[in-house]
Design a protein that fits this description.
Elements (H helix, E strand, L loop, with lengths): L2 E7 L3 H12 L3 E8 L6 H14 L7 E3 L33 H10 L5 E5 L4 H9 L7 E7 L14 H5 L1 H8 L5 E4 L1 H4 L6 H8 L4 H15 L13 H10 L4 E10 L10 E4 L10 E7 L1 H11 L3
Parallel strand pairs: 1-2, 1-4, 2-3, 4-5, 5-6, 6-9
Antiparallel strand pairs: 7-8, 7-9
The protein binds alpha-D-ribofuranose and calcium ion (CA).
Calcium ion (CA) binds next to helix 1.
Length: 303
């Protein structure tokens, strides 16, 4: 039985690859895509998500727009590499309604098997928790791309998705549901080298051809892991970890989010040594088996 998943995205290039993998992987059933402001304004992330699904032939998978800004903060800037306007053809507009309402309605009507995969600032997820706290019992687990144990990518210690909306992230980590954190410590170790980019481009599916274009875009903009060769497709790692959780090396510990620090707002504070005395609330990714990750990517893209 395929695992039902919902992706919450701020579609830029790596969200798009994650969407294409999730839509096409035989072990996943992509129930819907909710969008949020992050990499770009909400209208752009929603339009990019529609173009990604429609161009690949998935006009049946709903796209529902959510929060247009973080809970409290202004929407921070992102890199031009992430805030691109896709030119893939679109066949429809977003499903009417609000992503937070759709998330709550879909989860509350479910049998509790849905895996929630946030790949963006956590504003929609926090708002859904405030609207209906009982969704915690209806989500099998949360596998999110975000955070960092060691180094940030927006500040020395904050990763973009958390940095954009630290207050929302704190609410998500305090909710009490199972969380797997696929942070920069993982995504920076899953760089796709040129030979494997070529292998993706050698596939014949529309999903693979679109992914090839997205990877080429990254190569042109040198979206790499801290100067190492290879393309970093952050969000794809979280989707892959839903299919094959064992590809991750994790530590189970207490995680909280800094929301007031001048220098540290958005930092995921991971208590790996149990110094706070708080019980663990998160499986924090430390490493990833690249071969298993890339296998899932190829299977999702029609390899
Ligand atoms: O830090 C990487 C994350 O920020 C990814 O989800 C990327 O899409 C951007 O949202
Ligand atoms: Ca994203």
């Amino acid at each position: 039985m395929p695992t039902p998943v919902i992706l919450d995205v701020d579609t830029g290039y790596d969200d798009a690859v994650a969407i294409l993998m999730a839509a096409g992987h035989p072990q996943l059933e992509l129930l819907g895509v909710t969008t949020v402001a992050g990499n770009a304004p909400l209208a752009v992330t929603t339009d990019n998500s529609l173009r990604t699904l429609d161009a690949a032939g998935y006009t049946n998978i709903p796209v529902i727009a959510g929060a247009h800004r973080p809970l409290l903060r202004e929407l921070g800037g992102s890199s031009d590499a992430q805030s691109q306007h896709f030119r893939f053809p679109k066949a429809r507009e977003a499903t009417p309604g609000y992503a937070v309402d759709w998330l709550v309605d879909t989860l509350m009507a479910s049998d509790g098997e849905i895996v929630l995969v946030p790949l963006a600032p956590l504003t929609n997820i926090a708002l859904a928790l405030y609207k209906e706290p009982r969704i915690v019992e209806k989500v099998r687990k949360v596998v999110l791309m975000g955070g960092a144990l060691h180094r940030g990518n927006m500040t020395p210690n904050a990763e973009f998705n958390i940095w954009i909306d630290p207050e929302a992230a704190r609410i998500v980590w305090q909710a009490g549901w199972p969380i797997v954190m696929v942070g920069l410590d993982v995504t920076g170790r899953a760089l796709i080298p040129p030979d494997d980019v070529a292998r993706v481009k050698g596939l014949t599916s529309k999903r693979a051809r679109m992914t090839g274009e997205l990877l080429d875009f990254c190569v042109q903009r040198e979206v790499v892991g801290w100067g190492k060769p290879g393309v970093q497709i952050f969000d794809a790692c979280a989707v892959a970890a839903v299919v094959d959780p064992g590809m991750l090396t994790t530590t189970h510990c207490f995680v909280d989010v800094e929301t007031t620090g001048t220098l540290t707002a958005g930092m995921t504070v991971c208590d790996v040594d149990g110094l706070t005395g708080h019980p663990p609330n998160c499986h924090v990714g430390l490493d990833i088996d690249y071969a298993r990750f890339f296998r899932v990517m190829l299977d999702g893209l029609g390899g």
